[in-house]
Amino acid sequence: MSMKSENEHSEGGAGLAINGGAKAVTAPPPENGLHGINAVGEEEIRAVTEVLRRKSIFRFMKDSSTSPVANLEKRFAERTGAKHALAVNSGTSALISGLVGIGVSQGDEVLIPAYTYIATGAAVMALGAIPVVVEIDDSMMMDPLDIANKVTPRTTAVIPVHMRGKPCNMEAILAEARRFDLKVLEDCAQAMGGTYRGRALGLLGDAGAYSMQEFKIITAGEGGMVLSNDSTVFDPASIYHDSAYAFWMEGNPGALTSGTPVFLGENYRQSEVHGAIALEQLKKLDGILDRMRGIRFKIKEALEKLPGARLETSNDEEGDCGISIGFHMDTRDEAVRMAETLHAEGVPFGSVFSKQIPNRHIFYHWDFLIDKRTPHANGFPWKGACDYQYSRDMCPQTLDLLERNSVMRITQIMSDDYVDQCCRGIEKVARHR
Ligand SMILES: *Cc1c(COP(=O)(O)O)cnc(C)c1O
Fold this sequence. Notes:
Bound molecules: pyridoxal-5'-phosphate
Helix content: 25-40%
Structural class: alpha/beta
Radius of gyration: 23 Å
Order of helices and strands: HHHHEHEHEHEHEEEEEHHHEEHEHHEH
C-alpha cells in the first residue's frame, strides 16, 4: 500500500523534471557535431594524405580512374542508379547547376517550399529567377495542394525539398508538375541515402542536388552532387559547373552526349581533397543510416504513447533517413509547453518557429526575399521586371504548422543508454498528461 502511494507520488506532476523532479535522462548527451563529421576516422585521414602525397589535387587532366572525385561520381551513380552524377563544391552550386540543367532562365518563377534552408531560394535568385514560396503540409514539406495557387504563366520549375531526411510527397508533386508543365529539381541536401517508393531521391524529377557540407548526413566539409538520368539536363548542368568543361572533356567519349553547345560557366568544381573525404564518407553512409533509423524507430514508438502529440505525416517511412523525428500539438502553447517538459527531462525536443529567433529555414526570416534585396546595384531582378510581392504572412498554414511542431535531431553517436532513457522520459511525460 505504501509502495503504491509512493509510486503514485513519483508519477504525479511533481515528479516531472520541469517541476523539480529528477531528470529521466542521466546518460550524457552525444557530443556536438552531426552525422558524417562524427564518423571521420583514419580512412578519411589516409585518403587525404594520399591525395596530397600524389601532388594531384585537381580532378581533370589525368586518367579519371585515379581521381577520387571521378570515383565518387561513379560510386554515387551506382548507389542511386543514376545515369549521370556530377560532383561540385557545394549543395548551393549543385542547385544552381541543376537549375541551369532544367532550363530555368532569368525572370522565371520557381516554386520553393516555405520551410527549407535559405540556400534553396538563394540558388534561384543567383540565376536572376524569382523564388515563389509554397505552403508546407503536415509532413513539413511542400504541400502539393498549394502548387496550383502559386503557378503563373511565368512559372517554369518546382524545387521539392526533402527536409530533415524525409521524402516529399513526390507522387502528388510530380502530378502537379505535369499538369502545369513544370520541370522538377529535387533538393536532397538533407536527405543523402533517402528513397521514395524504393527509388533514390533526386531521380524522381528531372534532376537532384545533394550537399556534403558539415551539417549534412555525410560530409567533405563542403561539397555537392548533381544527379540526373537525362543527358539534356545533365550536360548543361556540367557545362555550367566549369567554364572549361568542354576542354577537359575533349577525347572523353562519354561526355556531352546530348550535343548541347558549350556556353559560359562558373567554377563549381570539386577538388580531389574534398572528393577523397567524400568517397570515404560514402562508404560509411549505410552504417550511419541504419543506426539512425533504429534510434528513430524507438523514439517514434515512445511518442505514439504521448497524448495530444500527432506524429508528422510521413510520405515514405522506409525511405526516411532517420535524422529527425517530429510531432505536432493542437496549439502553439501546448507545443511550447510539451517541448519544454520533454527538454527538462533531458529529451532533446525543441520548438521550431519563433518570430524572435531567426531561423534560416523559415520564409518568415528570409529578409533578403521579403525586402527584395539583391547583389545588383540596379535592383535586378526586382526593379522593372517583377512585381511579385512577398510578406511575412503569405504562408499562414506553414507558420501554424511550424508553431505547433517539435522536433528532435538524431545522430548515430547517441548511445543505447541515452536513447533508452529518452524513450523512458517520453513515457514518463505521457503518464503525467
Ligand atoms: C544545406 C542545404 C543547402 C545548401 O547546401 P550547401 O552545401 O551549404 O551549399 C541547400 N538546401 C538545403 C535544404 C540544405 O539543407
